[in-house]
Amino acid sequence: MLIDSNILIYSAKREYPELRNFLNENVYSVSVVTQIEVLGYHLLTENERKYLEEFFDAASVLKISDTVVAQAVHLRQQRRMSLGDAVVAGTALAYELELVTRNIQDFSWIQGLSLLNPFETSS
């Protein structure tokens, strides 16, 4: 599983304990772009930042390889998308990982990309 930025930001908030449980029960990886996006998020409280720093210390952080770059370029050639989303999707494709995101529609057009929205499965 590759965890998207929005899932981590939600998981740091008190009102989403089921999301923290989901993350604790699964083996996960994150893109280095997700690490930058999440820890750079300007609205994090100090407690949220500490939680997320611990998360990244425990996670497998996947670097941007040549294969990830090629996948991201190919995706951006097909359709307009943010650089961050392209790198995250490219990482999931390159490493053959399911992308866990709340923004399913942003990625649903990508062939070969497996998606999971834990907000839909945990209710």
Helix count equals 8
Main beta-sheet annotation: 3 strands, parallel
Order of helices and strands: EHHEHHEHHEHEH
Mean pLDDT: 93
Q: How would you name the CATH homologous superfamily?
A: 5'-nuclease
Walk me through what this model shows.
The protein has about 120 residues and is mainly alpha-helical. The protein has one domain (about 1-120): 5'-nuclease (Rossmann fold, 3-Layer(aba) Sandwich). Helices cover about 55% and strands about 10% of the residues. It is built from eight helices and five strands, in the order βααβααβααβαβα. It has helices spanning about 5-10, 15-25, 30-40, 45-60, 65-80, 85-95, 105, 120, and strands at about 1-5, 30, 60, 100, 115. Strands 1-4-5 form a three-stranded parallel β-sheet. α1 (about 5-10) packs across α3. The longest helix has 13 residues, at about 45-60. The two termini are about 20 Å apart.
Give the helices and strands, then pairings:
Layout: E1 2-3, H1 5-11, H2 17-24, E2 29-31, H3 32-39, H4 46-58, E3 60-62, H5 66-78, H6 83-95, E4 99-100, H7 104-107, E5 115-116, H8 118-121
Parallel strand pairs: 1-4, 2-3, 4-5
Helix pairs in contact: 1-3, 5-6
Features:
mainly alpha, Rossmann fold, 57% helix
